[in-house]
Amino acid sequence: MTGYDAVLFDNDGVLVDPPPTETQIRAARAAFESVGVDDPAREHVTGVVSGVTVDFLHEICATYDLDPQTFWTARERHDERSQLDEFRNGTRNRYDDVAAVTDLEVPCGVVSNNHHSTVEFVLDHFGLAGSFDTYYGREMTIESLELKKPNTHYLERGLADLGVGAESALYVGDSESDVIAAERAGLDSVFVRRSHCRDRDLEATPTHEVTSLHEVTRLVCD
To answer: Where are the membrane-spanning stretches (predicted)?
Structure first.
């Protein structure tokens, strides 16, 4: 299908550079240190950076006799601060081709696994707030981990805000979880092969694959 009535976009890796792994690792170590753990196991540091589940978080915290809520609050604040610092100092930037989708004549939104407050900052910092009718990131809570993509929760909230059915909407992402979430929610999907995911093998099959957001514009307008 081409020609859509609404488009939802992922944030990191689609609109802006994804966070460098080393930055996330430093932020996670800082979070551990802030709650009194000076030498956490590497697998626990990497675990809270990528793909952490509620059960694994509780397992990690039990290892160091930490209150999960206290530690997770520290982790989220250090992670957010590290991201905002990199946007402010220019380490991370918006992609040049974002300009191609800022004037689409259909309702648009952003749905991200990143913090809602970080998405809000990005849209304001890069002058994109007026280009999107709604946006969702996850709350800084342990419970929000259950709602991350490929869960369809935030996609469905975005569609409801735009007042458009899933069958005529498109979700643009850069990960397999984006493709799966779109499929589960009933949307067509676009996988953007940026430099960080150009050679990634996908088990899920996106509706479309592109290398630039200029191609997304053509999909929407055809």
So the answer is: none
Strands 108-115 and 134-138 turn out to be parallel
In angstroms, the CA 175 to CA 134 distance is 21
Where do the DSSP E strands lie in the chain?
Answer: 6-9, 108-115, 134-138, 169-173, 188-192, 208-210
For 209-214, what is the mean pLDDT? 97
User: Exposed, middle or buried by CB within 10 Å (0-12, 13-18, 19+), for 69?
Assistant: exposed
What would the two tokens of residue 201 be? 């093998």
H or E segment to which residue 83 belongs: helix 68-89
pLDDT, tens digit (0-9, with 9 covering 90-100), for 170-202: 999 999 999 999 999 999 999 999 999 999 999
Bridge partner residues of 210 (DSSP): 192
SS3 41: coil
| pTM of the shown model | 0.96
